[in-house]
Amino acid sequence: MATLIDGKKISNDIEMELAEEVRELVSRGLRPPHLAAVLVGDDGPSRTYVRNKIRACETVGYKSSLIKFAADVTEARLVEEIERLNKDDEIDGYIVQLPLPEHISVERITDHINHRKDVDGFTPTNFGKIDQEHHSHLPATPMGVMELLKRYAIQTKGKHCVVVGKSHIVGMPMGILLAGPGDATVTICHIFTQELARYTRMADILVVAVGKPNLITADMVKEGVVVIDVGINRVPDDTKKSGYALRGDVDFEAIEPKASFITPVPGGVGPMTIASLIMNTMAAYKARQGLAESLTE
Ligand code: NAD
After folding, report:
1. DSSP letter string over the chain?
2. Which of 6, 92, 97, 251 is catalytic?
3. Ligand 1 within 6 A of 170 CB?
4. Measured from the CB, is residue 176 less than 6 Å from ligand 1?
5. Were both Cys, which of 105, 107, 144, 269 would link to 276 (CB 3.0–4.6 Å)?
6. Which CATH number fits domain 140-271: 3.30.70.20, 3.40.50.720, 1.20.120.1760, 3.30.450.40?
7. Which atom of ligand 1 is nearest to the CA of 268?
8. What's the pTM?
């Protein structure tokens, strides 16, 4: 029987810690941190994610701004807004919610984001600093996973960590964090990996970030494995009012008895991505206010 890694509880703890910090800052006459979110189009899940991020800001006492654009906004207009946010002294950090419509290049947009305000940790500068001691903002989801491992005292040093998925926002930075600061031996698997199970069975810690429900079945993991399920999938469910349920990438019911630790979906990694975002926003705020060592050049 595995220990459930309760991301909801840990993220609540982090929110309470940050709320206390904000109260203290405001009592000293300082303004609270300010996070802005840019939302393009009408994608249902994106709206939910942004709403949850704004709600987290309210919980901890940050100021937040939601900047909405229609799906047909031009790339040039979006870049103009990003340049404005870069210059706005009242904004400590901001996110551009992904995915963006196809006519807009995520890479070009990300290139315009000032890395000091890049609280999602997606810019090339922040990506390049993942492995450095004086990094600025770590990519939010892998940072959240590292925080979960730390708070559950799960050692990564010397362990074999297998990451399934190699996206720019989850899999790749996850691998770098585990091999770098985590001192683990890392295998990164992806769509072209042959015999995926051969690698997943070797994992002491298995991180799955693919977007395919039940990709990882019980026969693909060893006894005692630590399972971190990053996947978020909507699967049809008539018993739910919405008509769908959220599921991860692993067959939770079958794997849970074999694992030592496991994250549920929902309530595992998801809330930690938001917790990372608000931690990064606090770091950006402190650097801008001269309250902490300034973020590296
Ligand atoms: P992505 O589509 O950018 O990348 C998916 C990766 O999975 C790719 O590297 C691909 O090579 C790999 N892959 C696809 N099919 C595979 C297969 N059959 N076997 C092995 N590898 C395979 O996705 P992403 O943005 O990294 O997101 C992955 C999942 O994580 C999604 O479900 C997404 O919703 C979820 N996600 C969750 C959070 C969170 O906060 N919990 C944050 C970001 C993403």
Report:
1. -PEE--HHHHHHHHHHHHHHHHHHHHHTTPPPPEEEEEEES--HHHHHHHHHHHHHHHHHT-EEEEEEE-TT--HHHHHHHHHHHHH-TT-SEEEEPSPPPTTS-HHHHHHHS-TTTBTT--SHHHHHTTTSTT-S---HHHHHHHHHHHHTT---TT-EEEEE---TTTHHHHHHHHHTTT--EEEEE-TT-SSHHHHHTT-SEEEE-SS-TT-B-GGGS-TT-EEEE---EEEE-TTSTTSEEEE-SB-HHHHTTT-SEE--SSSSHHHHHHHHHHHHHHHHHHHHHTSSPPPP-
2. 97
3. yes
4. no
5. 144
6. 3.40.50.720
7. 41
8. 0.96
